[in-house]
Amino acid sequence: MGRIRRPLTVAAASIALVAAGAIAAPSPASAHWSCGRAAPPDLDTSGGHHTLEAANMRVGSSTRCAISGISYASQSLDYHCYALDINGVDTWTYVVNVQTKVGGWIRDDLLNDYGSGVWCPNQTNL
């Protein structure tokens, strides 16, 4: 079964805020987590997370960023929050591997539940 990409949901929420006269956050399509930046806050309290297969963990929300580690399907993950990639297309979740204690970004389609549902604050704007 396919899923609805989060950027559409976030964009729809931003449009609703603007229509209601509220101050909207920066456009999600212009935000990402740049390579090498410190880890985002741990805002996601959900559990039961793992990769579908071995997946590279990266130092930013892009395949352009260096690899910080590898997570295997047998290892548990602690989600922090999610961000877009530098192109504003795919969503990525910041995780900490519970067994190895290594943190990094994994693209959401590689995760068993499509990643965190919590937006990372203070992303880098293009």
TrEMBL record:
Q: Which UniProt keywords apply?
A: Signal
Name recorded for this polypeptide: SH3 domain-containing protein
Task: Look up the domain of life of the source.
Answer: Bacteria
The secretion signal range is 1-31
